[in-house]
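Question: Hello, beginner here. Any chance you could explain the protein record under this note? Any guidance would be welcome.
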Amino acid sequence: MKISNYRNLIIDMDGVLWRGNTALPGLEEFVATIRNTKTRMVLATNNSSSTVDQYISKLKRMGVHVNPEEILTSAQATSSYLYKIAPKRSRVFVIGGDGITNAIRDHEFVLTEDDPDYVVIGIDKKITWEKLNTAVMNIRAGAKFIGTNPDTTYPTENGIGVGNGAILAAVKAATGISPLVIGKPETPIYEQALQRLKSNSSDTLMIGDRLDTDILGAQRAGITTLLVLTGVTTLEMSKASVVQPDLVLTGLPDITSGLLAV
């Protein structure tokens, strides 16, 4: 496959553009090439902890400028999905950072710990027993259980850290109930990304670092896939997996070269 055949990109962020607060090599050149080749992109992340403005600021510190409509978080996807299915002013208990909390609030749901209709869980780096217990009690009482994303780990500057999937697993273990997951590898976030790109699955390329979310989800949506080895997946892991991407590259410089290839 030729990367230059694709002018619509869905790009993961953690492990693709950066690790923690450190930009990965070739980030500025990669985005500059996207602009120069008139390629469209949506940065679609399963990390629900930050707001769009926070992601824009983070990228700006790394020398990259993006527009709000070019960022799609699992928090936004979850809130948009809930807005479609839930009655107005539904009561929601949220575990997570600013990203998911603000996204739920923006759709005018009532945030509460008491008798919620929904329990929504995103990555929370300050997770406590009290938060988990409140979630479990409410789900056992009948609240619907929704997770922003299933990633059990995520890449940091110091190694592989605990992801939201581990939190969801703890709540599932205590309730016996599986969450409805909105982020990758489920289809809602891909559908929203394609809508923003005004593209279809056949002319879009997904670039990600996780086989079980980025790559698997894109394949389910009929989107061509590119695995980059700067995140949680090694070449050995990729070779051993039942999920096989269309292309595997080492990092952003290789993708940049592919975008420029005639």
